[in-house]
């Protein structure tokens, strides 16, 4: 046999082994529709995304995984599934989902390194800023300065 043929065959076999090992090692995700390489599941949403998500949830269940472009998204489409995740056994996972995306360059620049109330991660700083904002916006001094309609 030709050496180049053996080399090519071994390269293909090695690549297939790596792909299957990587797929076996990936995280266990909820069921979801097949996705395209770059756009993910965006082509399946259509014009009215809420109707498309309802149709997909009837097929894949109340909890499904969608890839919206480059953003992996967990879609929860029933109140029971949401309660089970956020307030379930062991304290739930509400704090894990309470943050905001920190990989947005524009948000980082506009919020002074995520130090504004709109993009600050959930924590002591955000709670303090929220307390100040609520105090200032809902104080009785502000009520007297409001305009009448």
UniProtKB/TrEMBL annotation:
SUPFAM superfamilies: Cytochrome P450. The chain crosses the membrane at residues 6-22. It comes from the Eukaryota. One of its GO terms (molecular function) is monooxygenase activity. InterPro entries: Cyt_P450, Cyt_P450_sf. Keywords: Heme, Iron, Membrane, Metal-binding, Monooxygenase, Oxidoreductase, Transmembrane, Transmembrane helix. It comes from Gossypium tomentosum (Hawaiian cotton). The keyword Metal-binding applies. Belongs to the cytochrome P450 family. Pfam families: p450. Its cofactor is heme. This is Cytochrome P450. The keyword Metal-binding applies.
